[in-house]
Design brief:
- The protein is about 70% helix and about 0% strand.
- By secondary structure, the chain is mostly helical.
- The longest helix has about 40 residues, at about 10-50.
């Protein structure tokens, strides 16, 4: 690059804009990846609950699942037995399976939003935009209290 181009203010501003746009897209991509991983973790928790996996496959189920998932997905992080337990608790705490039906019922009522149960006042977008580490902390602190957990998710 010649010295004339380096000195040109328009060119310099354009290069800075390109850099800013690149970094902005990196952040957006990271947020989307986080959301998809949370959806994946939630689905694993859903599978564990729906299959009644612990009672079906025994007390060492999470250790076996962790080992087997690591064999199927070598090099993938986040497949420890403790993280798999968190995935189950994540699903149980925020079981969104019936949310669309409940939201329809709420929208058809004349009640004010303040009088509605807090447990349904969260969207998937809100839930899946919180980092996994924060969810783990919320799961630990709220001990199954969905209303309290949703409060903290909304405070992120």
């Amino acid at each position: 690059m010649s010295q004339l181009i380096k000195i040109d203010a328009e060119y310099k501003a354009w290069i800075e804009d390109i850099g800013n746009r690149y970094h902005s897209r990196q952040v957006k991509a990271a947020v989307l990846v986080n959301q998809e991983m949370l959806r994946f973790y939630w689905s694993i928790g859903q599978d564990i609950v729906n299959k009644k996996a612990e009672s079906k496959w025994g007390s060492s189920f999470f250790d076996a699942l962790s080992r087997d998932m690591k064999n199927v997905l070598p090099g993938v992080q986040g497949l420890s037995a403790s993280n798999l337990r968190y995935m189950k608790r994540f699903y149980e705490l925020y079981d969104l399976e019936f949310l669309p039906q409940v939201v329809e019922e709420i929208q058809s009522t004349t009640e004010s939003p303040a009088s509605l149960p807090d447990s349904v006042q969260i969207s998937e977008q809100e839930l899946f935009s919180v980092p996994w580490g924060h969810h783990r902390t919320i799961i630990d602190k709220c001990k199954g209290d969905t209303k309290k957990a949703i409060f903290f998710v909304k405070k992120r």
